[in-house]
Amino acid sequence: MQGTSIIAQVFYFVIYLVLQVVLMQNVVLFDVAFCFLYIGFLLLLPFESGPVRLMFMGLAIGLCVDIFYNSFGIHAAASVFIMYLRPHIVSVLAPRGGYETGMTPKLKVMGLEWFSVYALILIFLHHLVLFFVEAGGFEMFGFTLLKVAASTVFTFVVILIIQYLFYSSKRSL
User: Fold this and answer.
1) CA nearest to 155, candidates 28, 55, 59
2) Contacts of 34 (CB under 8 A, 6+ apart)
3) Please, which residues have CB within 8 angstroms of residue 146's CB and are 6 or more apart in sequence?
4) Of 60, 93, 142, 150, which shows the fewest CB atoms inside 10 Å?
5) Secondary structure, 3-state, the chain
6) pLDDT tens-digit profile of 82-92?
């Protein structure tokens, strides 16, 4: 990985973390929909990132969010989980010609349909682990599933808006 790419990754890590902690921590819709914007950083990591690097990045940003949310590792666990599954999901969604070197899974690069399937799967899985671990079991299964679904939609819409507003198709992450 090139030096400028590492600097860009650190920059995006800090931006997504600050946005999550400063802006999104107190944004809740109808007491069920939470926005975990920091997942956007994980979704946009380059395709060439190895599984160990992906899981380390998931652990790093998840632990940072856990520190600010005082949530005892649940964000880290959910983030590492989706980073473990990401290479498998990316391979299942791979186009016929595969991915070009240096590509990132951005909306304007991969298209709305591909990005939507990719992002919704990972966001849903993240929220599923996060909210069920937070609930500590399945006693409130219906309400927890409602939180998962509503938060998945909310997070996805915010990530889409950010993709349309701030990422061009020519820049690589």
Assistant:
1) 28
2) 27, 28, 147, 151, 154, 155
3) 32
4) 142
5) CCHHHHHHHHHHHHHHHHHHHHHHHHCEECCCEECCCCHHHHHCCCCCCCHHHHHHHHHHHHHHHHHHHCCCCHHHHHHHHHHHHHHHHHHHCCCCCCCCCCCCCCHHHHCHHHHHHHHHHHHHHHHHHHHHHHHCCCCCHHHHHHHHHHHHHHHHHHHHHHHHHHCCCCCCC
6) 999 999 999 89
- Conformation bin of residue 29: beta by default, left when phi > 0, alpha when psi is -120 to 50: beta
Cβ–Cβ under 8 Å, residues 99 and 159: no
- Please write the tens of the pLDDT for every residue from 156-173: 999 999 988 886 655 444
pTM more than 0.85: yes
Q: What CATH number is given for 3-166 in this structure?
A: 1.10.1760
